[in-house]
Amino acid sequence: VAAVDGRRGGRADRGGQGAAGASGLGSLAVTDGRLAGTRVLVVDDDPDILAAMGIALRAEGATVDTDEDGGAALHRAAATRPDAIVLDLMLPGQAGCAVLERCRSGPSPVPVVMVTANRGSRHATLATGLGASAYLVKPVPLAKLVDAVCAALGR
Fold first, then answer.
1. Is it the case that residue 29 has pLDDT exceeding 80?
2. Would strands 3-4 and 140-141 be described as parallel, antiparallel, or unpaired?
3. What is the dihedral of CA 7, 1, 81, 137, to 10 degrees?
């Protein structure tokens, strides 16, 4: 898988379960990748994108949790305390910018990489103004996504 693209509803996947885990690809354990020892929450309403991003991040050693809904993602972030979040802009439940604002406003702000099909400069300016570490437009090469997460974490 070289890039992620598209938009559809779907299901959540957590740490090797769901879409990626069903193929066996989501359960690969990497202990020496650039993201080894980190937990990343990926939020997108397209299950294929969740699976592709999860595979790419796990290949670098990250533990990956996923959600398809902004409100559910906020609950998961509070429960799991991820080191970084990869976040779509347009989500059911709660919009990505609202999730971004909540994740960046606490006492320990979490680095957030926005990944969206929205090419509008107004949205990019809003997201970076709210503290997004990066604003990537779909389709995103998975290597670029991993690089952005690593940069957000200072790796």
1. no
2. antiparallel
3. -50
Query: Tokens for 150?
Result: 């690593």
Helix axes 142-152 and 47-59, enclosed angle (nearest 10): 60
Q: What is the pLDDT of residues 93-108, one digit of tens each?
A: 999 999 999 999 878 8
- CA diameter of the chain: 40
> Residue 118 has which token pair?
């929205």
If phi over 0 gives left and psi between -120 and 50 gives alpha, with beta otherwise, what is residue 86? beta
Provide DSSP, 62-124.
Answer: -EEEEESSHHHHHHHHHHH--SEEEE-SS-SSS-HHHHHHHHHHSSSPPPEEEEES---HHHH
Quick check: helix, strand or coil at residue 34? coil
Distance between CA atoms of residues 68 and 44, nearest Å:
5
For residue 155, CA distances in Å to 41, 62, 95, 147, 149 come to 17, 13, 28, 9, 8
For 155, which DSSP code?
-
Whether residue 116 contacts residue 138, with contact meaning beta carbons closer than 8 Å, is answered with yes
pLDDT tens for each residue of 136-146 = 999 999 999 99
